[in-house]
Amino acid sequence: MLYTCFMDKNLKLIHLFGLYGNLLTEHQKDLFNLYYECDLSLGEIAEIKNTSRQSVNDGLRKAKEMLIGAEERLGFAEKFGKTKKILDKAEKGCISSDEALAEIGRLLEEY
């Protein structure tokens, strides 16, 4: 179970990076990509960047805080998830396309 939670957290961060990654500095983007996309350890990244593991850890922490903070303020990932659920219901025939459009319209008015 702990492994699943860790994976879910990483996938959420990767999703947030896709949405908000341009808010990060180039250095933070590099660290994020090396750690989450290339699956390198802090030590490996520190060696590549010619810095300390602590510096890499701090950079990743700041990047995560920025991504999570952007989502808390803007909520794009949450809005996307709600919209996807509505579209999935329409695709399965649980609701009509008109109902789906009305629900999405109400969702957009909330923000």
Topology:
Layout (H helix, E strand, L loop, with lengths): L1 H19 L5 H12 L4 H8 L3 H22 L1 H16 L5 H14 L1
Concise overview:
The chain has 111 residues and is mostly helical. The chain has six helices and no strands.
Describe the structure.
The chain folds into two domains: 1-74, Orthogonal Bundle (Arc Repressor Mutant, subunit A), CATH 1.10.10; 75-111, no CATH class. Helices cover 82% and strands 0% of the residues. The chain is built from six helices and no strands. The model has no long low-confidence stretch (mean pLDDT 90).
What are its keywords?
about 110 residues, mainly alpha, Arc Repressor Mutant, subunit A, 6 helices, elongated
- Assigned CATH superfamily of the largest domain: Winged helix-like DNA-binding domain superfamily/Winged helix DNA-binding domain
Helical element count?
A: 6
How many domains comprise the coordinates? Answer: 2
Which shape, going by the Cα principal axes?
elongated
- Helix percent reads over 70%
Mean pLDDT: 90
**CATH C-level category of the largest domain:** Mainly Alpha
Helix vs. strand class? mainly alpha
The CA-CA distance between the termini, in Å, is 34 Å
Biggest sheet architecture: none
Task: Write down the CATH topology of the largest domain.
Answer: Arc Repressor Mutant, subunit A
Report low-confidence residues grouped into runs of 5 or more. none
Per CATH, the architecture of the largest domain is Orthogonal Bundle
* Strand segment tally: 0
Q: Strand fraction band?
A: under 5%
Order of helices and strands: HHHHHH
Radius of gyration from the alpha-carbon trace, in angstroms: 18 Å
